[in-house]
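thread: overnight batch results

M.L. [08:02]
morning all. the overnight job finished for the chain we discussed friday. pasting input first so we're all looking at the same thing
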Amino acid sequence: MKARRMIHLLCLCLLFSILLKSAVEDLAAATAPVLHDERLEITLFAEDPDLVTPIGMAIDAEDRIFVLESHTHHPPKDYAGPKSDRVLLFVDADNDGVPERRSVFADGIHQGMNLAFSPKGTLYLVCAREVLALPDENQDGVCDGLKKILTLDTTQRYAHNSLLGITFDRDSWLYVARGNTGSDAWAVRGPDGSEISGYGDGGNVFRCRPDGTRVSEMATGFWNPFNLKFDMDGRLLLVDNDPDARGPNRLVHVVPEGDYGYKSVYGGGGNHPFQSWDGSLPGTLPYVAGTGEAPCDLIDCRRTGFPEDYHASVLATIWNEHTIERFELRAAHGTVHLKDKSVFLSGGKEFRPVALEADSRGNLFLTDWVLVDYPNHGRGRLWRIRSKEDFKVKPRDYFGYAEVAAIDVEKPLEDIATDAAFLRHAAIGSLSPDERRIARQSNESSVRLAALLADQRARDVAHLKGYLSDSSPLVKRAALVWAGLGLDTALQPLLVESLSGEIDTPMFEAYLAAEENLSGRFASDYRARNETQAKKLKRRLDSKVIIGIARDKRFSDEVRALALDKIPAGEVEKERHWIGPLALSAAGEVQLAAIRQLGVLAEPKPVWPRSHRQSPKKARRTAYAQTASFPVSSGRPKTWNGAPTKISPNGPRPKISLPPFIHCAPIAARASAAP
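M.L. [08:03]
and the structure it wrote out:
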């Protein structure tokens, strides 16, 4: 009887374990991200507790998978995990999607971000403020020790705007992506004394030799480029997060001496006249494609075993949108252009893709942070994506291309006038001094603009005054940006040269920004680094400069109208004694600008009650009554000026718009009588 009961109990336990395993598998399948291509499949390769909060990843020539496990990002006080970041090693020798071995390759790491292998097989790690080599000379699967290659010196302590991405080219040059360090001063130093530094610039890409020597900047103008990789044609691509108030996030092709428009000294808006996010500012380059929010990594699909129709595509992980996006690209004029964009993979709220890497078998691996929480939280997954069938596609060696792609320029003086931004950029960089002289004398504004940009790269300011008085607003705008960024206050008297001839709004805004940089204390404060963060430096333009232009009849009506529109609202009341007559007697754009300013002055403004005894609801109702000039105690009226109202006393104060003549005529009349 006892034996029978024991057998019955064992059978029940076995059945329960089978049901439990089936339920776990069903749950995993239900929570797995969904591929949008039925020819591919995704499986879970590893998960917590064997792997937690994974970030960067790299795979060596033997298909061993190295995953950076974060424990120092923002660990909570009661965090039970290790005290340092680790690099875990996974081995799946039989390629069945189940690792036979998991071990710790390296630890003692602080704020690790990304991993990459050099062509010689050494693993490198970029941390927020240093780059480390992790050699394993005897190939026993354990790092021989952390060797410091580069150091970032900065007071900034936020990891996601410091050193971020890392990759190598075929010739063993090491490339690192740096974030904007919150506009703090920074310096990257190598062991040979080579150094690059900045303050208030944008994030950048720099390179050095594998031992950290010969550090030099390659490109600038980024926000926070989280990672970068070469495609199979030798083009360096990166994914860049967007400024706080300017989008989109970007997929970018990085070229030598490229400026991609962002400068942290002017804040996170991304819309200062000396900033650009889309290549619209002369001298800056456009992005390849906009991405979803918080892109983290990318990969050329030719490194996978996916079907051949993926061979013109790049994948990018989009952390904040639970997706991987696919970008189909076409090559032209030295760069790549977006042909089509689609969602490659999507998941639920507990799917946060970070790193992408492929092995020599064509498998694509993906690290998953899992939760939205930034602090270390103890969750994590590693996914494998592969083709369901053998498409007989051999993945290409990452270092198999001949050399880093260069843009060929055969006829610089012709190519500088092209609309192709990257070809034009390369042509400008190849102009000789004689070719620059010829370009300055061209009748084509695009050629003169190219000459200016070439002179700017060569730091040849001798011709800046001529550019400021050029007939083209685009050339004058570029000259103003050059002068303003240079912070040479001796150039300030020359800025007025730009206000002659044809003017447009972007050019005039660049003029005001240049005046702002050169006429106050900003230039000296910047040089002295009087603020830890450059974006906190004060830039003030005396309103008298704008008012003086608006009143000066020696300037064209176009310039005066632009100046009138820029007079601060607080100054209009003080200046109405001369703005009023302009609204009555001036003509064209000046009159319209004066009317607009007086209209702003005359617009009804609420008198918000000061008594703290009123409830918010009553305060809104009282303020609205004072503004609208009709009682609301018995409820809102059904009509106002003959029109039905849709006003809630609990909502915001409505904006009452009156025709311009109602706003301006009485005030203009009073202004004309003012002494």
